[in-house]
Specification:
The chain is an alpha/beta fold. It has one domain: Leucine Aminopeptidase, subunit E, domain 1. The protein is 39% helix and 16% strand. β2 and β3 form a beta hairpin. It is globular. α3 runs parallel beside α4 and α4 packs across α5.
Length: 171
Amino acid sequence: MQYLEVDAVVIPCDQHLDQRKKEDQLPPPLVNFETHLLLHEEAGQYLRNECDSIKVCPLGKARITGGYLLPAKYVIHTNAPNIDVPDPIENCYINSLRLAIENNVKTIAFPCISTGGTFGYPHKETAHGVLRSVRKFLDIYHSHFELIVFCMTKEEEKKTYKEVLPRYFPL
């Protein structure tokens, strides 16, 4: 994701935008955010500084920062719930898309948010819910976007989206 030439890339975060410091005495994050860490590394210290200034991102919501050293102009951070939290994962995608529209983002890339691992969302059911929600959103706001990319890094994600994506976005 850190190499995509899109207006914005979306990454999962926690309520602190995962900018934890020892002096904060915060509990450890729920999961190792691989995408998050790689993007921060590529974007440079300015992204970390801007995240520190934001302070909080409520569950299911999204915040936007500059992309700095990334090809993407923006990074949209979304606070991803785990399966034990009643806030549906679809809110992360919809709130990211709303924020994209507010910032005139025409091209956007999403990773698979909250599937597997300690988040616990099952791949197939989550893919259906996410793609259904994004499809409904685009039925209303289609003119605002030129391209939406779903990035998969794990084989199970690739297999699931290859099967499910055509149902909501037929060629």
